[in-house]
Specification:
Layout lengths: L1 H4 L14 H24 L10 H25 L9 H19 L11 H5 L15 H25 L4 H20 L11 E2 L3 E2 L2 E2 L3 H27 L1 H18 L4 H27 L1 E2 L6 H14 L5 H20 L4 H15 L3 H4 L14
Antiparallel strand pairs: 1-4, 2-3
Helix pairs in contact: 2-8, 3-8, 3-10, 3-11, 3-12, 4-6, 4-10, 6-10, 8-9, 8-10, 9-10, 11-12
Length: 376
Amino acid sequence: MSHVLTPALPLRRRGGLLGARAWSGVLATVLVLTVLVPLLNLAVPADSILHLSDYHVTLIAKIMCYAICALAMDLIWGYTGILSLGHGVFFALGGYAMGMYLMRQIGTDGNYRSELPDFMVFLDWKVLPWHWSLSDSFVAQMLLVVAVPAALAFVFGYFAFRSRIKGVYFSIITQALTFAAMLLFFRNETGFGGNNGFTDFKRLLGMPLATPQMRMGLFVLTGLTLVGCYLFARFLVNSKYGRVLQAIRDAETRVMFTGYDPLWYKLSIWVISAVMCGIAGALYVPQVGIINPGEMSPAASIEIAIWAAVGGRATLIGPIVGAFFVNGAKSWFTVAFPEFWLYFLGALFIAVTLFLPQGIVGLFKGRRQDDPELRS
């Protein structure tokens, strides 16, 4: 399937992690995230034209979480040729792991003044279910943010890749996976809040969530995580490991004949990608304030693939650009023209497929052929 969509995705040149200009860009990004944005939000008066509102801070942070997912998608789709339509399940699992801890942090401040989360009291639960036993520990839940998506990805990926399921068949199976998970989490008896999920969070690590300082701290952490994931992904694709992944994408049978086992390469990058999505989900929940089964819907997973395609596959920076472009446009369209948003998204994807097979980043390739960051 990947060969049909993009017949020419050349191997990256071997070289250093980043060029001088790219390192300058990374440094500038870090300064914006850690200095400029906090100043514009916390220090500049609210009536100033330079003030960055809390709404926009939260919106940018949410899109950065999406950008991590798009980056994860690029590792498996752009560089390995595996199109997943189920990555939303890993994002949601990370979010639920964080949400369980945040629900326990509410304590007796809930509507029912009980140590149990409100939805459990409403459903007449008397004790916490077994899978909530570690939910009052921040460390334990952060380990689950990584371990649960990794475990699911490993089990699913091992059997799928060992059976040599690929192309459109693999994409359909991943979509079925996320749909099945969504139906499971909709059920009240699973202990995950059913249709409503988790919300009404109060504290994180004993500190109130609804303060400018906490909001900005989460924003900075999300931005630095995105930068760190980008650098890690760049390290992977520039290494011998990354070149084997690209060889598997282009000619898996030939890779097998040269003595490499594609199973473990595909499985390892699949698990890494799932963990990145889980981390993004954990960062997303305390900033947006809610997590429910809707994050596992097939449509949410398809959007992740759209971000990668619109920005430009096999570029790493492209999916990040795509996530900001699509979600920024969505934020504006859903306010200005809410009834036309889905038409715009469909038209955008068709236009990119027909006229920009290398995405938005591909527009700049002609002018910047010598820039290693824009070479795919």
